[in-house]
Predict the 3D structure of the following.
Amino acid sequence: MSRVKFLGILVPAAAVGGWFSGILYEKKRHVLINVSSHEKSSCACVGKYDKWPGIPFMSVSAATPISDGLDKSVAVPGSRTSQIMKYGFPGMSNIRSQRDFVLSYDQRNRVPYWVFEHLTPESIKYAEDVDRSKSEFHEDKSVHEMFRSTNKDYLGSGYDRGHMAAAGNHKACQQFVDETFVLSNIAPQVGVGFNRNSWNRLEKHIRKMLRVYPNIYVCTGPLYLPRREVDGKMYVKYQVIGANSVAVPTHFFKIVVAEEKSGGLHMESYVMPNQPIDDNTPLHSFQVPPEAIEKASGFLFYNAIPRTKITTINGRKSTWV
């Protein structure tokens, strides 16, 4: 049997096997994660997902714990991972599935590799009982304490605790907002001029896209880009903060896929330097080819989308083949 035919049989079999495993595990053990007390609040918007089994996506199930050899339960019951990750996983390392977003955690740098969100007009609609001021930054207890970032790491560092999955994208439920404050979703960001300004403008721009598109898929993450030093050589240099040496990214990226009602797809991709940026700088000046982000990050994003299905990239007709 050829290698191609073998893989053609193996991958669907793994998907079906993972799905059934998720169902069986869900029946035996409904609560799979040690949720902190502030995450145990009741949410009407959570309940509608609780009845579903694990994700029928490849061999990973949101209803089963994803083991990295250290922690035993990282998946959240009732999450909608299969919907969020509709267009593919960039990687399978240290995945944390929250109820309204999915991330891959970088244990060495104590920040995410990437964070995925699926946004709709309904999911970002503000609920009257949601109050962001009630949310508190908290450690991710599913991460081994040796590789975990803490609030003390950020204290006095001069950096904001910057959300990758933006709190403003998850206003439909207090529990969803609370979960965006888990430190595995956070990276050090320059505050004034970046996190509170231009980065915030980019987040708002993406939410405004929902006035046109019914579905938006967003991938966000850090980058550590090289620069030429005085000796003429290229180096990758970045600061670390706190006792746990949390890495301060040199840049951040967002890759957005906007899905039309007809199924047509449009992509926008951005890279911003982690430094103060003039508010008058237009967002489109930060647009880059998506493959540049893939090359810099080491991940292939939205790899489940045939390139020919993407109509435009950064407002221009796609030349991907």
Q: What stands out?
A: The longest helix spans residues 3-28. Residues 3-317 form a domain with the Extracellular Endonuclease; Chain A fold (CATH 3.40.570.10). The radius of gyration is 20 Å. The CA atoms of residues 153 and 241 lie 6 Å apart.
